[in-house]
Write a structure and sequence with these properties.
Elements (H helix, E strand, L loop, with lengths): L2 H20 L10 E7 L3 H15 L2 E7 L1 H9 L6 E5 H9 L9 E13 L10 H10 L3 E4 L6 H13 L2 H5 L2 E4 L4 H6 L5 E5 H4 L5 E6 L7 E8 L6 H11 L2 H9 L3 E2 L1
Parallel strand pairs: 1-2, 1-3, 5-6, 5-7
Antiparallel strand pairs: 3-9, 4-7, 4-8, 4-9, 4-10
Length: 261
């Protein structure tokens, strides 16, 4: 892992333990549901961790997955949950509107925008910005999340294509998907290159990660979590964040393409 990512991870880890210590020290009530709203990028990790947490804390996780932009709009419009986990900018916007409990914001995980190809296919060279641009131009088809729907990786890649001056050249071979389906499309052979969060690529059988975007194009997405102001179980929410900071959860997060927060 690059030194910058290691440094960021250490800072976030320190922030996680400090923030958890500052949360109210109530015990989670026995039984019941814990409502969670979070990004689709965390689907594989949380679905894997869900049974262990439920057994340990005698709670049921009711998880709503969605695009960051969509979930942010829903919360701003009045929806809430015991736990909300979205990108750092989105969570900071929710904090400004008093949609999360003050002092409850904690780092959860970090991922990057990366490139996928079908398992067994040759990996293109994306080690430099120029090599990455040439790989995009040479690809027969490229799939990524529709920027108009607010998927973070799709929005970012559209900006990268504009920045590199190749947006028009890519239009004729672009396939847009509504969310985190780019790696699935690549695995099925329906697209040559897929663009998405590393955490959306690594868990997909039949797809392989080429790597994150190179150099100054690298984009690290920090996921932050907090207790929603409408939380029915704030103590249980704290218990989930403590679980996610534990060694078992961190191992799962790494296996799914994340650096733990």
């Amino acid at each position: 892992m690059p030194s910058l990512v290691r440094c960021l991870a250490r800072v976030l880890m320190g922030g996680l333990f400090a923030a958890l210590a500052a949360l109210p020290s109530a015990r989670a009530e026995e039984g019941g549901d814990l409502a969670v709203m979070t990004s689709v990028a965390l689907t594989s990790a949380l679905d894997t961790l869900k049974p262990n947490f439920e057994r340990r804390d005698n709670l049921k996780l009711a998880i709503t997955y969605g695009l960051i932009a969509d979930l942010k709009k829903r919360v701003l419009a009045g929806e809430s949950a015991d736990v909300i986990i979205l990108s750092q900018p989105a969570m900071e916007d929710l904090a400004k509107e008093s949609k999360i409990v003050s002092g409850s914001l904690v780092p959860v995980a970090i991922t990057e925008v990366g490139v996928a190809v079908r398992a067994g296919a040759p990996k293109p060279d994306i080690s430099t910005v120029d090599a990455f641009m040439q790989a995009l131009l040479a690809a027969k088809s490229i799939v990524y999340a529709d920027p108009a729907k607010g998927g973070a990786s799709g929005v970012y890649f559209a900006r990268v294509a504009e920045r590199l001056g190749i947006a028009d050249q890519l239009k004729g071979k672009t396939i847009l998907v509504p969310g985190a389906q780019a790696a699935d499309m690549v695995a099925k052979g329906e697209a040559e290159l897929g663009i998405g969060q590393v955490s959306e690529i690594v868990p997909v059988a039949g797809a392989q990660l080429v790597g994150p975007f190179p150099g100054e194009l690298a984009n690290k997405l920090v996921f932050m979590g907090a207790i929603g102001t409408g939380a029915k179980s704030p103590a249980a929410a704290k218990a989930l964040f403590q679980f996610l900071a534990g060694p078992d959860a961190k191992a799962v997060l790494r296996s799914k393409g994340f650096e733990p927060g």
